[in-house]
Amino acid sequence: MKKTIVLGASTNPTRYSYKATSKLKAAKHEVIPVGIKKGEIEGITIENGTPDLEGVDTVTLYLGPPRQAQYYDYLLSLKPKRIIFNPGTENPELMKLAEENGIEAEVACTLVLLSLGNY
Predict the structure, then answer these.
(1) pLDDT beyond 90 at 1
(2) What are phi and psi of 73, to 5 degrees?
(3) Which whole number is the average pLDDT over 110-118?
(4) Which of 29, 57, 58, 92 is most buried, most CB within 10 Å of its CB?
């Protein structure tokens, strides 16, 4: 299973970051939601700031490009295999940085990938 960070996690069940965390958990992936507010999603604590994590396979983004810049160094330091840019999070600058650092930049929807079995 793929250790995944959901960046931009929210406690609001109508938000896609919440739904993605829930679906990743249901699919037996280790999921770490990271957001600005404290809380939890289906029993998983939302981490705040830039938690020190290792062995990250995927980062799935739920932050718009203007809010991503503060996480550039953090995301690159995690050395994930890929970063998924969900609809509305596409960012050519971060995509280029990722690729320059050997990280796959994938424009996709995590929920669709999971539903198709292509995650």
Answers:
(1) no
(2) -60, -40
(3) 96
(4) 58
The 10s digit of each residue's pLDDT in 21-77 is 999 999 999 999 999 999 999 999 999 999 999 999 999 999 999 999 999 999 999
**Assigned token pair, 36:** 């600005």
What local confidence, expressed as pLDDT, does residue 24 receive? 98
Q: β-strand 58-61 against 4-7: which pairing, if any?
A: parallel
The residues, any chain, with a CB within 8 Å of residue 50's CB and separated by 6 or more, are 34, 71, 74
